Amino acid sequence: MTRIAILGAGSWGTALSVVLSRVRKAHDTSLWVHNAALAETLRSQRENKLYLPGISLPAATRVTHEMPEALMNAKVVIGALPSVHARAIYSQALPCFTPEMIFVSATKGLEPATHLRMSKVLAQVLGQAGAVEPSQRIAVLSGPSFAAEAARGEPTAVVIASEHPYTSAARGVRRYALLADELQEELSGPTFRMYTNDDVLGVELAGAMKNVMAIAAGACQGLGLGSNPLAALITRGLAEMTRLAVALGARAETLSGLAGLGDLVLTCTGALSRNRHVGIELGKGRRLPEILAQMRMVAEGVETAAPLLALAREHQIEMPITEQVDAILHRGRAPKEAIREIMDRPLKRE
Question: Where a domain ends, among 161, 176, 198?
Fold first, then answer.
């Protein structure tokens, strides 16, 4: 039985603890909760009413606020953490990490201060302990996956990506495969289908960029606009995402897959999208601090727009939608003005 530790008990971390209770292989799962009071509530009530109401925690899932307890003897460590806090929490956990552990980042965002992807943040933290080639032990999990739907057992298809081969020794036989292949076998289930990919860069960038596009999509709805602008936004948003990803070294086809187009469509149209909700409220004329103050969960696109724009400018890539979202979020531009700015850009070929 594989021991799995999930760091983070927000909606996605909690949902993953439920999903993993249904997969083909048996697991011993622990769920680390940052807030001690919430950990106690989850232990006693077996429900995360704050972040994932209406879903019962599996009876076998161990809930703890203590990092050493969560990570003891774990083979797989899944980080379901807000990007802004990921480095601090991984650093807190570092003394409990072992050379045998495999890491899965399930965070869709960039570190605001450094513009780094989460796999790079995690590799830097592991490097502090003198780990050799820490990226060989890191995979990323992304794709169209609302936490509540996955936890309810609705069919969900995601991507698990890694760049490096991983050596395992099952039943005394050593085999070499991508780490993603090993995790696919370990974590897939009847309602949770994993596809493998070796384009970690593309998968992570797509997961970060689609959140910004979802804010724009929500703003269109908040303004009372119809289906025409939404279709245009999703299509041109995907083109914008692909331009930057390819310029940074990712593959274009990754952006047309589950981690790119799939997640973009879900986040731009789904009622459960937190980033879309932010956009809707901005489109209605509400101020960002007021919107965020009333949200329990993090909308990653709010902190991701500026780092993405900085990366785009560094590589001389045009990202007009991202630029306008950043202006709405951080420079007080009205959503209606932002849309007019996009529509008034010079005419060109598709």
Answer: 198
188-215 confidence digits (pLDDT tens) = 999 999 999 999 999 999 999 999 999 9
**One domain, residues 272 and 194:** no
Which one of 198, 231, 256 terminates a domain?
Answer: 198
How would you class 270 by CB atoms within 10 Å of its CB: exposed for 0-12, middle for 13-18, buried for 19 or more? Answer: middle
Residues 6 or more apart whose CB falls under 8 angstroms from that of 335 comprise 219, 222, 223, 279, 282, 283, 328
Residues of the chain with pLDDT under 70: 131-132, 165-177
Query: Which residue reads 């979020």 in tokens?
Result: 329
For 263, residues 6+ apart whose C-beta sits below 8 A from its C-beta are 108, 142, 143, 144, 145, 206, 207, 210
Distance CA 290, CA 222 (A): 16
Q: What is the pLDDT of residues 100-120, one digit of tens each?
A: 899 999 999 999 899 999 999
Q: Pick the catalytic residue: 210, 284, 336, 348?
A: 210
* Token representation of residue 240: 């914008």
User: Which helix or strand (DSSP H or E) is residue 140 part of?
Assistant: strand 138-142
Same domain, residue pair 158 and 64: yes
Cβ pair 147, 13 in contact under 8 A: no
Please give the sequence-ordered ranges of beta strands (E in DSSP) within 143-233, or none if there are none.
Answer: 156-161, 165-170, 173-178, 192-197
| Of the candidates 10, 99, 102, 20, the residue with the CA atom closest to the CA atom of residue 61 | 20
SS3 label, residue 316: coil
- Token pair, residue 166, equals 């991983």
Active-site residue, 108 included: no
Residue 320 and residue 241 in contact, taking contact as beta carbons nearer than 8 Å = no
Tell if the pTM clears 0.85, that is, is over it.
yes
Environment class of 8 (CB within 10 Å of its CB; exposed 0-12, middle 13-18, buried 19+): buried
- Domain co-membership, 192 together with 257: no
Single out the residue of 241, 249, 251, 231 nearest to residue 210, CA to CA.
Answer: 241
Query: What is the chain's length?
Result: 350
Q: Are 3 and 28 in contact (CB under 8 A)?
A: yes
Strand partners, 178: 165
